[in-house]
Amino acid sequence: MFKSLVTEVLGVGVDPEQQGASLKDYEWRSRVLIIFSDEEGTEAGRQASLLLARPDALRERDLVVLEIAGGLVRGLYGAADELSAEAIRADCDVAPGFFSLVLVGKDGSIKLRNDHVTPPDEIFARIDSMPMRRAEAQH
User: Fold this and answer.
1) 49 bridge partner residues
2) Bridge-based pairing state of the strands 72-77 and 63-69
3) Bridge partners for 69 per DSSP
4) Residue 61: CB atoms within 10 Å
5) 89 phi and psi, to 5 degrees?
6) Please, which residues have CB within 8 angstroms of residue 40's CB and are 6 or more apart in sequence?
7) 61 and 127 Cβ atoms separated by less than 8 Å
8) DSSP string, 43-69
9) CA triple 118-123-112, angle to 5 deg
């Protein structure tokens, strides 16, 4: 939404390169699950607790879990050095202050987007159904 507004109002897109590191840093290495925090942080906190209770499942699926609250990016599971909240918001087209859960595949495309707390098994099932994940599981 934010990216769309900037593009519409100013006639230009947001350039993540000028804003700091973004999700491109994870392509072909990790899947990224991003929890965009709601104003109160309650939904984001519930989602984070559910996911962090399953570290083996996160590791097995090469997942990095990030939480974005306001202008801050916090790595909940995996590395999150010098990432830009603004660049990631632009990449995922998520406005500040609203809960959203976004799963980005190793290829850099969005594989899942929910605006409600999502059970980890639903997320893991989505990942496990991906062709790249099925190939990884065979090796």
Assistant:
1) none
2) antiparallel
3) 72
4) 19
5) -60, -40
6) none
7) yes
8) HHHHHHHHHHT-HHHHHHTTEEEEEEE
9) 85
Q: In this structure, what token pair is assigned to residue 53?
A: 């209770």
Strands (E) located in the chain: 31-36, 63-69, 72-77, 100-104, 110-114
pLDDT by residue (tens digit) across 87-125? 999 999 999 999 999 999 999 999 999 999 999 999 999
How many Cβ atoms are within 10 Å of 24's Cβ, its own excluded?
11
Tokens representing residue 9 in the block: 């109002």
Cα distance between residue 7 and residue 14, in whole Å: 7
DSSP conformational letter for 96: T
Please tell me whether residue 139 adopts helix, strand or coil conformation.
Answer: coil
**39-83 per-position pLDDT tens digit:** 999 999 999 999 999 999 999 999 999 999 999 999 999 988 789
For residue 90, give Cα distances in angstroms to 42, 51, 136: 23, 24, 30
**Rounded Cα distance, 58 and 110, in Å:** 17
How crowded is residue 59: how many other Cβ atoms within 10 Å of its Cβ? 11
